[in-house]
Every structure is written in structure tokens, then in C-alpha cells.
Automatic annotation (TrEMBL):
Species of provenance: Talaromyces rugulosus
SUPFAM superfamilies: Sialidases (SSF50939)
Domain Sialidase: start-end pairs: 64-214
Name the record gives this protein: Sialidase domain-containing protein
Keywords assigned by UniProt, alphabetized: Signal
Signal peptide residue numbers: 1-22
Pfam families (alphabetical): BNR_2 (PF13088)
Matches recorded under InterPro entries: Sialidase (IPR011040), Sialidase_sf (IPR036278)
């Protein structure tokens, strides 16, 4: 376990879930989703993400608060997601001075497990509010299937001086089987945020400089909450939320035909009715059907981003068109992730009075 002292030293020195598929996938003829069974409790926290390990175990992460302590919690399921057990804690810190959240787990080909997370410094003001003083994305590792954790690297770090934060890291292993891709959102100002990627060829110990996935050529938008999956071969799709100045949140996509080296073809995936929001998306590939999740307040009588439901839409043409909308977790549901189970099913993961997993089947 990485405790308070370790996290403090990181500060001084200075984490779907969506699984990426390793081979081309044929298109499906149909993609009508339906719920299967009741939601399964993962744990008591928020921002659940999960991925399969090499032995078929599912590893999951979420953030949880215990009094004044914020924890990044690790859970596992050995029965295909039907039950979950806590196995470790990646990091812990005083919630008044540290902001630990957005954990994302992945297993490397070596067997080592990594978790990336946002890991920000802040100060507590006299009125009870907080002021951020430093932003970073931190990566920790485990060599015992998630029981104990150690610090590995800090791919992104910025003082709170003209930058408003780095958020929502997302891991993917490239098609070469070894290069690790780290996607995240960098908030440049209150009205401008970009989607970025860095890569590592040494298991996450060192990282390249950041390249822009979306937002860099679009002024005054807030591209964020990035998720990525393989469409087929070297063809990838990334989804993200964005809010043009004076508007509301919608879900957009960009694509890559070279396994993430370059990106373009910005399109709308889902826009809620006028005046409402669709945000915090993720994406996965289920046997050739693309599935995108998001949270939305569109069913309410008025806009309320604190009372949103989690929904999905599907695409059978590589992301050119989307439909078959389904609510998989009712309001209030936040920070949904996705995990492909097999060619016809997936889990929708969301915080609905705690982290839960809802099985969804496609027909």
C-alpha cells in the first residue's frame, strides 16, 4: 500500500473502463442493447474502471473517501464480474491537501499492473473551499496482482500557473504489443481543454512529450473525459465531451488510421436536446459493435448536471452513425466506464450510490 507519507514525498519530488482489442474485428449485423440482470456492487466509491488480467481475472479501481482520507482502491473479480473483492489500495492522502481520483488500471505483457491517476496538490481555504497549487498524473505499479503498490512515474506535471489541471488518464497498449499509450485531458483555461497522448516504451517508467488528440485546433472548447478503442487493425476511435463556448456538453469523436500516431475526422457522436447535456463518455468494441457511454440530464424538466442518468449508444459502421440508445444506470449515475466481456456482452460501470457494474447484451 502507498500511504500518506509516500504520497507526500511524490508531491515534494515531483488511474471502463475500456479494453483495447488486439486483432481486426468483423462488423456485426445488429447492435440492439438490453440489460441483463441487476446491477452488481463493485464497491463504495466513485469513478469505477476495470480491465481483464491475463489469467481471466478482472481488476477494477475506484476512488473512495474515508473521513478525511481519499483512497484509490483496487478490487478484483474471479467470477466474470458477478462479485468483487477489495485486494489493495494504490494510494492514500489527506483529502484537504491532496486530490486523488480518476484511477485507471491496465496489465502490461510482463504481468505488471499499472494504475494511473490524477494526483493534485491543493490548499484548504478559511471558507472551506480549496485552491489547487500543482497538477500531475501519477503512475503506480504492482507486481503481486494488486495487493501492494509502488510509485513508478509522473508522466504529466504542471504548477497551477496558467494551467487548470490534468485529468482522467486512460491507458492503452498499442498494436505492437509493447508501446504503452497514456491519454488524458489538459485544461488550459476555464473555456479551453485539450485531449493529449504520451507514449512509453519501457513499461511506463519514462514518457514522450505530449501530442494533441483533439482540441488543439478548436478554440474555446473543453475536450475531455477521453476514451479510446480499436475499430479494426490500426484504426482507432477516441470519444470525448466538449462544450463550445455558450453551449452545453455533447459527445464527439476523432479517429486514427495509424494506431494513434495521428488523429482527425472530428464528428458528433451524441447531442442531447437543446439546453441539456451529454458528457463523460467512454467507448469499447463488442464483437465489432462500437458502444459509447455517457451521462445526461436530458430526461429532466430542466438542466441539472448533478442529476444525470448513464446511457449508451451503438454503431455498426465504425462510428459513422449511432443509435439504439439505452439507459443502463438511472439518475443519479456518474463517471461511467465500459468493459467488454465477450463478442455479445459488456459491463457498464457507474457510480450509482457507489460503484456498480450492469451487464448489457447486444443482439
Amino acid at each position: 500500500m502507498v500511504g500518506l507519507g509516500f504520497i507526500a514525498r511524490l508531491s515534494a519530488a515531483a488511474l471502463l473502463f475500456t479494453s483495447s482489442l488486439a486483432s481486426p474485428i468483423a462488423k456485426r449485423a445488429a447492435a440492439t442493447p438490453s440489460l441483463s440482470g441487476d446491477a452488481i456492487v463493485i464497491g463504495g466509491g466513485t469513478y469505477p474502471r476495470a480491465n481483464f488480467l491475463q489469467d481471466g481475472t478482472i481488476i477494477g479501481t475506484y476512488s473512495a473517501t474515508d473521513g478525511d482520507t481519499k483512497n484509490i482502491v483496487v478490487v478484483q473479480s474471479t467470477d466474470g464480474g458477478n462479485s468483487w473483492t477489495q485486494v489493495g489500495t494504490v494510494a492514500s492522502a489527506d483529502k484537504n491537501t491532496r486530490d486523488l481520483d480518476n484511477p485507471y488500471p491496465i496489465q502490461l505483457p510482463s504481468g505488471r499492473i499499472l494504475v494511473a491517476m490524477r494526483n493534485h496538490d491543493k490548499t484548504l481555504n478559511s471558507d472551506g473551499s480549496s485552491t489547487y497549487t500543482f497538477y500531475r498524473i501519477t503512475v503506480c505499479y504492482s507486481d503481486d496482482n494488486g495487493a501492494t503498490w509502488s510509485y513508478l512515474s509522473t508522466p504529466a506535471s504542471d504548477p497551477a500557473n496558467g494551467v487548470n489541471g490534468s485529468w482522467e488518464p486512460f491507458f492503452r497498449i498499442a498494436n505492437d504489443g509493447s508501446t504503452l499509450q497514456l491519454y488524458y485531458s489538459r485544461e488550459n483555461s476555464a473555456i479551453d481543454q485539450d485531449s493529449l497522448m504520451r507514449t512509453s516504451t519501457d513499461g511506463g517508467a519514462t514518457w514522450t512529450s505530449a501530442t494533441v488528440i483533439s482540441g488543439g485546433d478548436t478554440d474555446n472548447t473543453r475536450d475531455g473525459m477521453l476514451g479510446v478503442t480499436q475499430v479494426s487493425g490500426d484504426n482507432l476511435i477516441a470519444v470525448f465531451e466538449s462544450i463550445p463556448s455558450g453551449s452545453t456538453f455533447s459527445v464527439y469523436s476523432v479517429t486514427s488510421s495509424d494506431d494513434g500516431s495521428t488523429w482527425g475526422n472530428r464528428q458528433t457522436v451524441y447531442a442531447a436536446p437543446s439546453g441539456f447535456n451529454a458528457q463523460a463518455p467512454q467507448v469499447t468494441n463488442v464483437g465489432g459493435t462500437l458502444v459509447v457511454s455517457f451521462q445526461t440530464d436530458e430526461d429532466l424538466s430542466g438542466q441539472n448536471q448533478k442529476n444525470e442518468a448513464a446511457k449508451i449508444v451503438t454503431s455498426t459502421d465504425g462510428g459513422s452513425s449511432w443509435g439504439n440508445k439505452l439507459t443502463f444506470s438511472p439518475a443519479v449515475s456518474n463517471w461511467a466506464g465500459l468493459l467488454t466481456i465477450d463478442d455479445t456482452s459488456l459491463f457498464g460501470l457507474a457510480d450509482h450510490s457507489g460503484s456498480k457494474a450492469q451487464k448489457i447484451t447486444l443482439a
